[in-house]
């Protein structure tokens, strides 16, 4: 398994790429991030929650979904 810093770097790269494509209008889908992270759901959620607390990423709540985006 990759180390935490490498996983965080991959997440941030994906979020930045999606942010650039959409012009900041949409976040990254959690299902797309799951393909990169390859962690069980509880561990994935813990990692993403920690990154949100550290203000590396932010959650976005569109209708019936939860997405990850860059913090404002």
- Indicate the mean pLDDT: 90
Distance between the termini: 31 Å
Shape: globular
Weakly predicted, low-confidence segments? none
Radius of gyration, in angstroms, nearest whole number: 11 Å
Number of strands: 3
Estimate percent helicity. Answer: 55-70%
Beta content? 5-15%
Major sheet: 3 strands, antiparallel
- The largest sheet has its strands arranged as 1-3-2
| Main structural class | mainly alpha
Number of helices: 3
Order of helices and strands: HEHHEE
Structure at a glance:
With 72 residues, this protein is mainly alpha-helical. It is 56% helix and 11% strand. It is built from three helices and three strands; from the N terminus they run αβααββ.
